[in-house]
Design goal:
The protein has six helices and 20 strands. It is an alpha+beta fold and about 475 residues long. It is globular, with a radius of gyration of 27 Å.
Length: about 475
């Protein structure tokens, strides 16, 4: 009995001593109540409202308490599992200017708020809401260029790729500081790629003889690996399979019917795809639209969201023009393998594509593009001095969130560096998004087939730019 009393006394003494170690008032202070207005709204405004607001792709808005409250439990689940905000790059590789991940304190704040019943708090504590310009993420554009006409997608239509050409009326070279492709109807627009089509140089090119023309056509037909299925481009079934695109002279890229290939990305102006974050190029970095150029809208229309009725679309591109002399011209490269073949049922199929850099440059962004079977994509650099480095790794690709990763500091890439892009797909029944696990898959435009393109934005070192005033139809001046 005495032994028991001694133990109890010792425990009591230890408890009292521990209270002395707490900050003054802690023993009787109530836990802080986390509220939407004071604690949670600032987190949402900083990380979520870009997509979670009226007119955007997200299913609800985080701008007000009334809009957020019904989703509180779902928000907690997504945040704890780090599904939201979406960010799929390996956190141990690279540093990213647009890293939207929440830190642990922010996650714990949201969890505490939901566990407390998601109270609103004092509305006077609510910070000012972020301001957006008529739906444009880049702010009010200096120039808005719409498609030349509204497109109508008929009920039950399959995937379609449609091209529209627009003359923006630029009489002088135009330097673009920001560009945004804006879908007119998100229910059917899977992606937009807006290209610049400079004036044709053929007028000054030497004329070919009939025999030369014949040989050129024969060469193109021999090397052409694609065919047209209505409006969709697909790889021919009898094209040789090269999962190792680096084993081909082109690094995996094929030649299209118009003579272009995967090497022709320098004219890309703006793009849109599900979940894509808006481009925000470094200060002084611009894209050029030469005088007399046309703008090409490549529109991918799809009913993958379950659309069954007739739908119409009138998409557009908004431009903010450079207000100061440009210092770097931004170009785009798509590193692709068009020769791959994914066997039916394959759970972890891999293919590669290569590109050897021909001049010193800096990489600014990385963007993987795959379809519903896509699992991962990795960008690696093999330098001329024998070193190798992983530049960007996306181990859990998500078709619904096609994120562009902006390097915090542009990455120096010396001439002669080989860039290796490695892709994996899941064509098994375990992939709940797989349209048909019993089918061998090759390259094709439709969402129910597959692609692999590693997009890179880059600037070329030591290339001088000439300041230019921009004027044209509705463009104002570039000062």
């Amino acid at each position: 009995m005495l032994r028991t009393l001694t133990i109890l006394c010792s425990l009591a003494t230890a408890f009292v001593a521990s209270l002395c170690l707490l900050p003054a008032g802690s023993a009787n202070s109530p836990a802080k109540t986390v509220t939407f207005s004071k604690d949670v709204a600032p987190i949402f405004h900083k990380n979520c409202t870009e997509c979670h607001r009226a007119g955007e792709a997200a299913p609800f808005s985080t701008m007000t308490y009334k809009e957020v409250r019904p989703w509180a439990k779902s928000i907690k689940e997504k945040v704890v599992n780090r599904e939201m905000p979406p960010w799929h790059a390996d956190p141990h590789i690279g540093q990213w200017a647009n890293d939207r991940r929440l830190n642990q304190t922010e996650i714990e704040t949201i969890v505490s708020w939901v566990n407390a019943g998601a109270p609103e708090g004092n509305p006077k504590d609510l910070p000012p809401a972020p301001k957006f310009t008529d739906g444009w993420s880049i702010g009010k554009p200096d120039v808005v260029i719409p498609m030349p006409k509204e497109y109508q997608l008929k009920p039950g239509a399959p995937d379609e790729i449609q091209y529209f050409e627009v003359d923006p009326g630029f009489k002088e070279d135009v330097w673009v500081q920001l560009a945004e492709a804006r879908p007119g109807n998100r229910r059917i627009v899977h992606h937009i790629i807006a290209f610049v089509k400079p004036p044709s140089p053929q007028a000054n090119a030497p004329k070919m003889s009939p025999e030369q023309m014949k040989k050129m056509r024969e060469h193109m037909e021999k090397n052409l690996i694609f065919y047209e299925d209505n409006s969709l481009t697909k790889v021919k079934a009898d094209v040789p399979v090269y999962d190792d695109g680096c084993a081909t002279p082109s690094g995996g890229g094929g030649v299209f019917r118009d003579g272009s290939g995967s090497d022709d990305g320098g004219s890309l102006l703006a793009g849109y795809a599900p979940g894509m974050n808006q481009a925000n190029w470094p200060t002084g970095t611009v894209k050029k639209i030469p005088a007399g150029s046309k703008l090409i809208f490549q529109m991918h229309y799809s009913t993958f969201l379950g659309v069954t009725g007739e739908e119409k679309d009138l998409s557009s591109v908004g431009l903010i023009l450079a207000k100061a002399p440009p210092t770097k011209e931004l170009k785009t490269k798509g590193i692709a393998n068009h020769y791959f073949k994914i066997p039916a049922g394959a759970e972890n199929h891999t293919a590669t594509a290569c590109w050897t850099v021909r001049e010193d440059m800096h990489f600014v962004t990385f963007m993987p593009h795959l379809h519903m079977r896509g699992s991962s994509m990795k960008f690696e650099a093999f330098y001329p001095d024998g070193r190798k480095e992983v530049l960007c790794n996306v181990p859990k690709y998500d078709f619904n969130w096609q994120i562009v990763y902006y390097a915090k500091n542009p990455i120096a890439i010396p001439k002669g560096t080989k860039i290796l892009v490695t892709t994996t797909w899941d064509n098994s029944a375990k992939n709940k998004f797989n349209p048909d696990p019993k089918k061998d898959i090759r390259w094709g435009d439709p969402t129910y087939e597959e692609m692999t393109i590693g997009w890179i934005d880059y600037t070329v070192d030591g290339k001088p730019l000439k300041p230019a005033a921009a004027s044209g139809s509705g463009s104002g001046e570039n000062q």
